Amino acid sequence: MNVMAVVKRITQQFMRDKRSLALLVIAPVLVITLIWLVLDGNEYEPEIAIDDVPPPLEEVLQEEFDNDTKEMSEEAAKQELQAGDIDAFLTIKENEVFILLEGSDATANSATLRTIQEAVQSMDAGSAAEPVIAYYYGSDQLNLFDQVGSVLIGFFIFFFVFIIGGISFLRERTQGTLEKLLSTPIKRWEIVFGYLIGFGIFTILQSLIIVSYSVFVLDIWMAGDFWQLLLVTFLLAITALSLATLLSAFANNEFQMMQFIPLIIIPQVFFSGIFPVESLAEWLQILSKLMPLTYGANAMQAIMLKGLDIWDVWQDVCIIIGFTTVFVILNIFALKKHRRL
């Protein structure tokens, strides 16, 4: 009887919590669907540029790459490689096959190089010599962890700042601290900025530790400037913090705060660079543009893998700041339901 009484109470309590009941079904379906959409995407199709290639080999390459080959000079190809518009450049120098790979994506490198080598071997170019392979970014030592490591750094910083910041701000509200502040003449924007700056001090420390550990202990590939990378991770952490404090206004307890993870955090992982977004459906590529982690990961990959300067990724940085600005403004308005000034 006692056991059944407990079972009845738990069942009734769970049935009254419509959000948890819906999440029990929606979250797993959402995550499984995202995994299916990402892994069931089209096979990655490399694009290459060619110059001074014999017509028979050019025909084979056109066939192998489904006509995704462009004829251009080496200088023009380097500009295309820098912009990320092609994956490799192929030419013949002194009867040797010269291949210049983009280099920052280990998966694309492997697929591109394999296809080119198959095409060259099928032509039997008259030389048993191995092709000369160079990398515009990175090197042949670049592995999968180096490729996705920058994304993982951004994700873990975003994830833990979101959880810790959101729950901490929620406790301020549920324990009455926020209510006491709102009963004083302090303005809403002062409260929001005060919390962001206060928590921001610890996000700087967290970013410094994670980035330093990844670069100097795990020896992840780092071609750019350490302090510029740290600045990007800090901006991404502030975005996560402002988003967390905003969503915490709509949660009544810590469990409800955790419910935002499969809806807000997990989807960003699939569209931030761990998987090739280019092979996904167009509407999924558009969806990825609505996620802050996409721009943070792009900027971090550009600095770490390509050695670019932060001014080269100013668009990504500005969009991250834009997300933060929007979340901060919404935070100020969210406090209206607690007090009207």
Q: Which spans of ≥5 residues are poorly predicted at pLDDT below 50?
A: none
- Going by helix content, strand content and strand pairing, the class is alpha/beta
What is the approximate shape?
A: elongated
Helix content: 55-70%
CA-atom Rg in angstroms = 25 Å
Mean pLDDT: 79
| Strands in their spatial order, largest beta sheet | 2-1-3-4-5
- Number of self-contained structural domains: 2
Q: For the report, how would you describe the main beta sheet? A: 5 strands, mixed
Total of DSSP H or I helical runs spanning 4+ residues: 14
Output the helix-strand order.
HHEHEHEEHEHHHHHHHHH
Strand residue content:
5-15%
Architecture overview:
- With 341 residues, the protein is α/β, with parallel strands linked by helices.
- It folds into two domains: 48-135, 3-Layer(aba) Sandwich (D-Maltodextrin-Binding Protein, domain 2), CATH 3.40.190; 144-337, no CATH class.
- The protein is built from 14 helices and five strands.
- The chain has a five-stranded mixed beta sheet with strand order 2-1-3-4-5, with helices on both faces.
- Helix 8 (188-217) crosses helix 9 (226-248).
- The longest helix is centred in the middle third of the chain and has 31 residues, at 144-174.
What attributes characterize this protein structure?
341 residues, alpha/beta, D-Maltodextrin-Binding Protein, domain 2, 2 domains, 5-stranded mixed β-sheet, 14 helices, 5 strands
Outline of the structure:
With 341 residues, the protein is of the alpha/beta class. It is 65% helix and 7% strand.
